[in-house]
Design brief:
The complex is a heterotrimer of chains A (321), B (370) and C (514).
Chain A lengths: L2 H31 L7 H21 L6 H26 L4 H23 L16 E2 L9 H5 L1 E2 L1 H19 L1 H11 L1 H6 L4 H28 L10 H11 L4 H20 L11 H16 L23
Antiparallel strand pairs in A: 1-2
Helix pairs in contact in A: 1-6, 1-9, 1-10, 1-11, 2-3, 2-4, 2-9, 2-10, 3-4, 3-9, 6-7, 7-9, 10-11, 10-12, 11-12
Chain B lengths: L1 H5 L3 H24 L4 H13 L2 H26 L7 H18 L5 H30 L3 H23 L20 H6 L8 H18 L1 H11 L1 H6 L4 H28 L11 H11 L4 H25 L4 H15 L1 H8 L24
Helix pairs in contact in B: 2-15, 3-14, 4-9, 4-12, 4-13, 4-14, 5-6, 5-7, 5-12, 5-13, 6-7, 6-12, 9-10, 9-14, 10-12, 13-14, 13-15, 14-15, 15-16
Chain C lengths: L7 E10 L2 E11 L4 E5 L6 H8 L7 E6 L2 E3 L4 H6 L2 E4 L11 H6 L5 E2 L2 E2 L1 H14 L15 H14 L4 E5 L7 H16 L3 E6 L2 H7 L2 E6 L2 E7 L5 H9 L17 E11 L6 E11 L2 E6 L6 H9 L6 E6 L2 E2 L5 H6 L2 E4 L3 H5 L6 H4 L18 H14 L16 H13 L5 E5 L7 H16 L3 E5 L3 H7 L2 E6 L2 E7 L5 H8 L13
Parallel strand pairs in C: 3-10, 3-11, 6-9, 9-10, 15-20, 15-21, 18-19, 19-20
Antiparallel strand pairs in C: 1-2, 1-4, 4-5, 7-8, 11-12, 13-14, 13-16, 16-17, 21-22
The chains are: A mainly alpha (321), B mainly alpha (370), C alpha/beta (514).
Chain lengths: 321, 370, 514
């Protein structure tokens, strides 16, 4: 086999795996930057993956053809937002413990989606395989570039969206008034409040953006990688996204680097199966790599220790300002 | 003793009770939306739990792991830590017990079973201590490290089981030696072959230990002081780092014990799984519902254990997917965690600022993150 | 007296919190261009009143008029719109934002969708020149001094076009030098036509800078006076409600042998590797109160931590009563006779969610009298707690209620009771009267003097010079982690201390050593 071609394939596959993680992790980023700790990412992505599968399935039965996965994507967003509203309501308005609400979202999302799948598909634990999913688009011209064409410009629309998402998030967070205010709410809500910025409003917005992006992330898995929804469709991607957000030190480009790396860890599992020596490598270590690395980074064993937004995790209590 | 009675005073009891009712109502609503008869479903659940002596035995078996993980999470909460990692500690405890149970031969049962139990409990404790160490020495938020450790525990367990004790051609370990078994044969026979083991009895002892340790010893005084206010504890000469480590270790031991009985008492082998069993997360629910009090935790585990076991009955009799019970449990935690909502319902006439509250989470409510 | 329409008028403001009336029918007029001081003890209701004016709280009764028209101020946003700005006691600045970002936050200049940083920097520079408030717009808040942070807070309000400025205890965190500068800034602002409300409990500042003063006691307005027609003792009397003696009977007695020796203490900072304490040496004798003056953040906390053992030291030694404590743990030092009244009583001194009884043994629970074999003897603890509560007059609903339910003064009494009954050799008191009302302050001072007379060595750290004058036998000044000099209580004055507190060594002193 040709090494360059292998590498291009690996990169391509890495980016496809990274797509869901990028959306998920950027979602986590917006939430945490606004001061709300979001371990419900997994649940929000599960919701997105589920809704995308169901909506696409109904759409293709209704004859929407190629538009079906796009409708599925939209449904994924809506479902992600619904779960994010639950997080916002409980942790911002009711000042509940954010980590606990995150756990609740994960439990509820896993249960509700499977419950509905069983109702819709007569007791089956997974949806039918979808016919109308996203296919890879080759960008005319760009896809002919050696290596890069194959690696970067012959991929799913969701991955192209992820390409745009990273610089866009970076711009929004660090160059716009909205980003400045969102970050101020996550760092020092008292400072924002006293200059007339509504902490509640910005935290809701941050969490809802989180739901939108996580929903897309989940939908991307269904509509590109698995082609249907079951209880194992998301299986930990939300937690890897959370890890990537921390590993990327709460910055969009850092997160991109982390998701690329973790995406590669997933792509490699399939990739090295092509080689005989892979049988000697315990797959479990590839699986646990993202978590292990994140733990090491947090402990300061790799590079300097990291800290997230100063006020993340704490409900804002104006009487203590 | 004032403490024992305090759990039964109105304010402590009201929020969980209302949360349970609201949770069950949410479940009924979801069933109604799905076109099921929620009344017959709930009565099917009830009948499943109390239907026969076998069912009662199996319900107790389902309660046991929840009791242990509930104690685990609750203990950490009391010490000011959110142990979301009971899941991983459970896995590690189970794996260690399996390996000891399978690999050691020729030991008398009186030695082998306790040895496997102790090794499993300690393995869980050490796994918890990792998060405790990272928190106390490196300032790593325990919620995040625990999440990472849960996944690492899952894959590590799978790796250990597949590489050390795999049953040929199957995705599970070999059976443990008879001498490592913690099942109680005569009790199983008495209850129609329900899988009974020493777990529930050791669990009850742990309930008592939980109380004595926290409220009757100086060590417990220290752990609670650190849990409520680590700064003040440090100034008062308490070794805060050591306390956090101990708390997470003890918490991990509770969770690890849960895993131990799951393999030594119930299944006698361990499966290679794609996802961890979820007892750790349910433990959070149990601890929250029980107000982090040992008696409350016991009651909480009984409720959730019964719901979980009974869900099979709902599925069989009323054809309702078992997930409905997960939805109910999720809703109950949601309502306990958002107790502000319940208090709004209970006292609708009191507008304005909420008084400074320390709610159901108690010691666990100040979880500084980052 | 005929007057133009006041810029702000508060009429009959009442605000209740559970169990307390914070503001009781308060009325107040602020004239254009005046500096109006709001004087009152801690907890008198000054901050609540100003929080109402700034929209942070809603009054239960009463009306607010701004420039003659009635306004409902339902949030800081509305207050800002009405031209009201507030400089908070605890700065509301985002640490990792730049000066300019903090100032423009909420009303950022734009170019397209982006923040126009060039314009933001220019505007900030212009404002800072106009009012003589020197700042660098491009540096991050975490890298600038406290005085400069306060200037950023003032600029924040000016940038929003504030005509009415509220200063909440603005001098609490400043050096003597910075206080002088601030007074000048206040005068400049008033001269530019801004109207200023100055919340303070410091009489000197009021006399120096204000035009009028309103005195508040227990949520009520006692009087509004023209500053030039009153004096400090009249104000003090109105503030407290009775005559206050500024002098305490400080017995002059010959101190005993040296108890505490701090020798050449050097301590490195946790992050940057810079020294936070450099070669600090001093001694305290039995029956002596040793005052340590200095602006907050000059190494006081680190010094306390080094003596109590909370932080390891780089070099030097700590000796108490001839015993070298340098390598001992916190607990060993406590049993050797070190006791502390920590600065932040709620954060460091008490476990608020513990019962009063449990708090009373926080530093002594290990004693065998409170239980043997690792178990707790609840009865012994309860007896001990009841005794302390009685002896030190801690007002509480019982020893089984949470410490949280006690007032600040009684919480402090509880700590003092706990620490003094341990019969320590050395008592370290950090800001022991912070946030207390006069009655509680007197109690604390009496107990400290009593402890002194019993022959204990006392290290008193305070940012209030008056307290140090009143209590101390000797006063040293710490600046940037070094002792600038040491004076007998007879020879101190504001000027000498002020100079030392801003980094000048006392003439005729060689080094940091006393």
């Amino acid at each position: 086999m040709d090494l360059i071609s292998d590498l291009a394939n690996l990169t391509n596959s890495t980016l496809v795996f990274a797509t869901a993680l990028i959306f998920g992790a950027m979602g986590g980023l917006f939430s945490e930057r606004s001061g709300v700790f979001n371990i419900g990412l997994e649940g929000m992505m599960t919701g997105g993956a589920f809704a995308a599968a169901i909506a696409t399935w109904y759409a293709e039965k209704a004859g929407y053809g190629g538009a079906s996965p796009w409708l599925g994507l939209l449904a994924g967003i809506v479902c992600g937002v619904l779960f994010s509203l639950l997080l916002a309501l409980a942790s911002v308005t009711l000042k509940a413990n954010q980590a606990i609400v995150g756990v609740v979202i994960n439990i509820l999302a896993a249960a509700i989606t499977l419950y509905l799948v069983k109702i819709i598909f007569n007791g089956a634990g997974d949806t039918d395989i979808l016919n109308e999913v996203f296919s890879k688009w080759a960008i005319p011209g760009l896809s002919d570039i050696p290596f890069f064409g194959k690696a970067l410009f012959n991929t799913y629309p969701t991955t192209y969206m992820a390409y745009i998402l990273v610089p866009l998030c970076s711009y929004i967070l660090f160059k716009t008034p909205f980003g400045l205010r969102l970050r101020s709410v996550g760092e020092h809500p008292g400072a924002s409040d006293t200059v007339g910025i509504s902490v509640t409003k910005y935290r809701y917005i941050g969490v809802i953006i989180s739901g939108v992006l996580a929903g897309i992330g989940g939908a991307a898995i269904t509509l590109t990688t698995t082609g249907n929804f079951s209880h194992s469709t998301v299986s930990g991607q939300g937690f890897i996204a959370l890890a990537a957000m921390i590993f990327g030190r709460w910055s969009p480009w850092g997160v991109f680097g982390a998701t690329f790396f973790f995406g590669m860890a997933q792509a490699l599992r399939n990739f090295i199966k092509l080689y005989d020596w892979s049988a000697h490598i315990p797959m479990e270590f590839l699986y646990m790599l993202p978590y292990l690395l994140t733990l090491l980074v947090l402990a300061g064993a790799v590079g300097k220790g990291v800290k997230g937004p100063a006020a993340a995790g704490e409900p804002y209590d104006p009487s203590k300002r | 003793m004032t403490k024992w009675s305090q759990i039964f005073i109105k304010s402590n009891l009201l929020v969980p009770l209302v949360a349970i009712v609201l949770g069950l109502l949410c479940g009924a609503l979801v069933m109604w939306l799905g076109g099921y008869n929620s009344w017959s479903a709930y009565s099917a659940l009830f009948h499943k739990v109390f239907g026969s002596s076998y069912d009662i035995g199996e319900t107790i078996r389902t309660i046991t792991p929840l009791l242990f993980t509930g104690l685990s999470v609750g203990f950490a909460f009391r010490a000011g830590l959110f142990n979301i990692g009971a899941e991983g500690q459970f896995m590690i405890g189970m794996t260690a017990a399996t390996i000891v149970g399978v690999k050691l031969h020729g030991l008398p049962a009186i030695v082998h079973a306790p040895l496997a139990l102790v090794v499993g409990a300690l393995a869980g404790g050490l796994w918890g201590a990792i998060a405790g160490f990272l928190k106390s020495n490196r300032g790593v938020n325990e919620v995040i490290s625990c999440i990472m450790l849960n996944w690492i525990a899952l894959y590590l367990s799978n790796y250990l089981i597949s590489s050390l004790v795999l049953e040929k051609g199957q995705q599970r370990s070999e059976m443990i030696q008879e001498s490592a078994s913690l099942s109680i044969g005569w009790l199983s026979k008495a209850l129609d072959n329900a899988r009974m083991d020493w777990g529930i009895f050791i669990g009850m002892i742990c309930v008592a230990l939980f109380y004595i340790l926290l409220w009757r010893t100086k060590q417990g005084y220290e752990l609670r002081a650190v849990g409520h206010n680590a700064d003040a504890a440090r100034v008062s000469g308490i070794n805060v780092k050591g306390s956090m480590l101990k708390s997470m270790m003890i918490s991990g031991i509770f969770a690890g014990l849960g895993g131990v009985f799951e393999v030594l008492g119930v299944f006698h082998y361990q499966v290679v799984t794609a996802a961890s069993p979820g007892y750790g997360f349910d433990g959070i629910a149990v601890a929250l519902l029980g107000g982090n009090h040992p008696i409350g935790i016991l009651l909480g585990s009984v409720l959730f254990g019964a719901l979980t076991y009974g869900s099979a009955g709902m599925n069989f009799t009323a054809n309702v997917p078992t997930e409905i019970v997960r939805i109910v449990i999720g809703c109950i935690i949601f309502f306990v965690a958002s107790h502000g909502l319940i208090q709004m319902f209970l006292k609708p006439r009191k507008p304005g600022r909420k008084p400074k509250k320390k709610g159901a989470v108690d010691g666990g409510s100040d979880l500084g993150l980052g | 007296m005929e007057q133009a329409v006041p810029v702000v008028e508060l009429r009959g403001i009442t605000k209740r919190f559970p169990g307390i009336v914070a503001n009781d029918n308060i009325s107040l007029q602020l004239r254009k261009g005046e500096i109006h001081a709001l004087l009152g003890e801690n907890g008198a209701g000054k901050s609540t009143l100003m929080s109402i004016l700034f929209g942070l709280y809603q009054p239960d009764e009463g009306e607010i008029y701004v420039n003659g028209s009635r306004e409902i101020i339902d949030g800081p946003g509305k207050a800002i719109k009405l031209g009201i700005g507030m400089v908070h006691q605890h700065f509301k600045l985002v640490q990792n934002f730049t000066v300019a970002e903090n100032i423009v936050l909420g009303i950022e200049p734009r170019r397209g969708f982006s923040i126009n940083y060039r314009q933001a920097h220019r505007k900030v520079s212009e404002l800072s020149e106009q009012y003589g408030l020197k700042v660098d717009p491009k540096v991050q808040i975490q890298d600038i001094t406290v005085g400069m942070q306060q200037r950023v807070e003032i600029l924040k309000t000016l940038y929003r076009g504030a005509e009415i400025l509220i200063f909440d205890e603005p001098t609490a965190v400043l050096t003597v030098q910075e206080i002088h500068e601030l007074m000048q800034i206040l005068r400049n602002l008033a001269a530019e036509g801004k109207s200023i409300i100055l919340i303070t409990h410091k009489l000197k500042e009021i006399m120096e800078v204000s035009d009028r003063v309103t005195v508040i006691r227990r949520g009520r307005v006692i009087d509004t006076l023209t500053t030039s027609e009153t004096n400090e003792s009249e104000l003090a009397e109105k503030m407290v409600g009775r005559r206050v003696s500024f002098q305490l009977d400080k017995e002059k007695r010959e101190p005993g042998p040296t108890l505490l020796q701090v020798n050449h203490l050097t301590l490195r900072g946790s992050d940057k590797g810079r020294n936070v304490l450099t070669d600090v040496s001093f001694e305290i004798r039995a029956g002596e109160i040793y005052g340590l003056a200095g602006v907050d953040g000059n190494g006081q906390h680190e010094l306390v931590d080094a003596i109590t053992g909370l932080r390891p030291i780089e070099s030097g030694s700590v000796v108490l009563g001839g015993v070298d404590l340098t390598r001992k743990s916190v607990r060993d030092r406590m049993s050797a006779g070190v006791a502390q009244i920590p600065e932040d009583r709620q954060k460091q001194g008490l476990v608020l969610d513990f019962k009063v009884s449990e708090n009373m043994v926080l530093t002594t629970y290990k004693d065998s009298r409170f239980g043997r074999g690792g178990f707790i003897d609840e009865k012994a603890i309860n007896e001990h707690a009841s005794k302390l509560v009685g002896e030190f007059d801690v007002r509480t609903a019982g020893i089984h209620v949470p410490m949280r339910s006690l007032s600040g003064g009684n919480q402090q009494k509880a700590i003092i009771a706990r620490e003094l009954t341990r019969d320590p050799q050395l008592l370290i008191a950090v800001q022991p009267t912070r946030g207390l009302d006069i009655g509680a302050i007197e109690f604390v001072h009496e107990r400290l003097l009593q402890a002194k007379n019993e022959g204990k060595a006392i290290l008193l750290i305070s940012y209030e010079l008056d307290e140090l004058y009143k209590m101390s036998d000797r006063i040293a000044v710490i600046f940037d982690g070094q002792i600038m000099g040491e004076l007998d209580s007879e020879e101190v004055d504001d000027e000498k201390l002020g100079l030392m507190m801003s980094g000048n060594r006392l003439k005729g002193e060689g080094g940091g050593a006393a």
